């Protein structure tokens, strides 16, 4: 009887243990299922977050690419702006040099015009001087020709004076002879008359020579006048 009671107690104990184990197992199963559900939700959330992170990363990469492109464009624009600024500086420098060059050319042009006007004045003065020199040369040539003519006339005059002196000497000689003839004419004999006739013939010959000489002198003077450029 005691044995049966003990067996019953053990059986009850086992049943209670099994019940407790079953309850614990069910509770554990429910806990595991709850945990699994939570893990599933967490996994889903993690996957969602991972997907979100991937999307964010892709978006960030895209944004980074856009930013890089923008930075590249900005760099290119900055380089373009720097190039344009450099070109503008060069243009400004060239403009300044161009303005200075234009100013220099204008000054040179004014100087050249002034120099040209001065040269024109010099040319006009030289032309006037040349014309005056030509006139002077013409006058000089005429003066030289006149001097030559005067020299020739002077030589002719000197020659005529010499010839005149010679003629005066001859006339004086003839006068002396005539005086001697007049002194002796009163005492002439036949022989003296013949001598006197001979002397008269010589006197006529001297008169003819003198007349011919006068004609020759007049011809020489007339020829000198005809050869002179200042008739």
Task: Compute the CA-based radius of gyration.
Answer: 80 Å
What is the terminal separation in angstroms? 209 Å
Sketch the major β-sheet. none
Instruction: Spell the H/E element sequence.
Output: HH
Treating each run of at least 4 consecutive H or I residues as one helix, how many helices?
A: 2
Beta-strand fraction estimate = under 5%
Low-confidence stretches: none
Morphology call: rod-shaped
Topology diagram in text:
Layout: H1 2-184, H2 190-227
Helix pairs in contact: 1-2
Signal peptide: 1-26
Keywords: Coiled coil, Receptor, Signal
Protein name: Putative hyaluronan mediated motility receptor isoform X2
Protein described:
The protein has 231 residues and is mainly alpha-helical. The chain has a domain at 143-227. Helix content is 96%, strand content 0%. It is built from two helices and no strands. It has helices spanning 2-184, 190-227. Helix 1 (2-184) packs antiparallel against helix 2 (190-227). The protein is rod-shaped. The termini are far apart. The model has no long low-confidence stretch (mean pLDDT 74).
Highlighted features:
mainly alpha, 2 helices, 231 residues
Task: Provide a quick synopsis of the model.
It is built from two helices and no strands. By secondary structure, the chain is mostly helical.
